[in-house]
Design goal:
This protein is α/β, with parallel strands linked by helices. The protein contains 9 helices and 7 strands; from the N terminus they run E-H-E-H-H-E-H-E-H-E-E-H-H-E-H-H. This is Nicotinamide riboside kinase.
């Protein structure tokens, strides 16, 4: 059995791709799971970098306290629970537009997952974040036992993000200025994730060879269009990881 006390499941993708929704669904389905939000590791408001357009850039690598984030992940892997001094501000934020999920599927997966209560497997730590797998985060990326990636088209991400009221920060509240997605969020996403797609087109096909090399599982087009299908897809991958751990 691997010498670790938690299975780390990463859920990444562009802003408003459904990461937090999926994380919460998986947490509710699995018998021994908890969530760590990458957004809880933003730097203080005054330390957020300024974008070339003159606004704060919350969607770049330098906005995050990566040292604290990596330390928390290693703590979870060693101890099986989050650091005791970590207080989440992310749970105060809305997850945006509510999505329809087939409750019969949730009940079925919950029943299937109940068998893991009686198996010798560690807790499942679900980590959701907009930036988990970039090339600049190789050290953090390799800590994950399961790497899930949710692909979303620009217009979908823009519509969902603009429907949000804003975000609780360490020292206040942030509301996106006009055109923030097209000027800041999406260009940053493309820059950090182009390597995962053929020809660098983040709305096109995955670079399957690269994803296989890195152990990243990307959503199918079917799972991309339905949170119910996305949950089934994600649960299947996590269940396989639990089975491999038990072996």
């Amino acid at each position: 059995m691997p010498s670790q006390n938690a299975i780390l499941v990463g859920i990444s993708g562009p802003s408003s791709s459904g990461k937090t929704t999926l994380a919460r669904l998986l947490r509710d389905v699995l018998p021994n799971a908890f969530i760590l939000h990458e957004d809880d590791f933003y730097k203080p408001d005054a330390s957020i970098p300024q974008h070339a357009t003159g606004v704060a850039d919350w969607d770049c690598l330098d906005a995050l306290d990566l040292s604290a984030f990596e330390s928390a992940l290693r703590h979870i892997k060693q101890h099986g629970l989050p650091p005791s001094d970590l207080v989440s501000k992310e749970d105060k934020n809305s997850i945006g537009q509510q999505v329809d999920v087939d409750h019969a599927v949730i009940d079925d997966l919950t029943w299937k997952a109940s068998r893991w209560m009686f198996q010798n497997v560690p807790p499942v730590a679900i980590i959701d974040g907009f930036l988990l797998y970039s090339e600049e985060m190789e050290g953090i990326r390799e800590l994950f036992d399961v790497k899930l990636f949710l692909k979303t088209e620009f217009e979908t991400a823009r519509r969902r993000r603009e429907a949000r009221s804003g975000y609780v920060t360490l020292q206040g509240f942030w509301e996106d200025p006009p055109n923030y997605v097209q000027n800041v969020v999406w260009p940053n996403y493309k820059q950090d994730h182009a390597f995962m797609f053929k020809g660098g087109d983040v709305e096109g096909e995955y670079n399957d060879e690269k994803l296989k090399e890195l152990g990243i599982s990307g959503t199918s087009s079917e799972a991309q269009q339905s949170m119910t299908k996305c949950l089934e897809w994600a649960y299947g991958i996590v269940e396989e990881a639990l089975g491999n751990f038990k072996e």
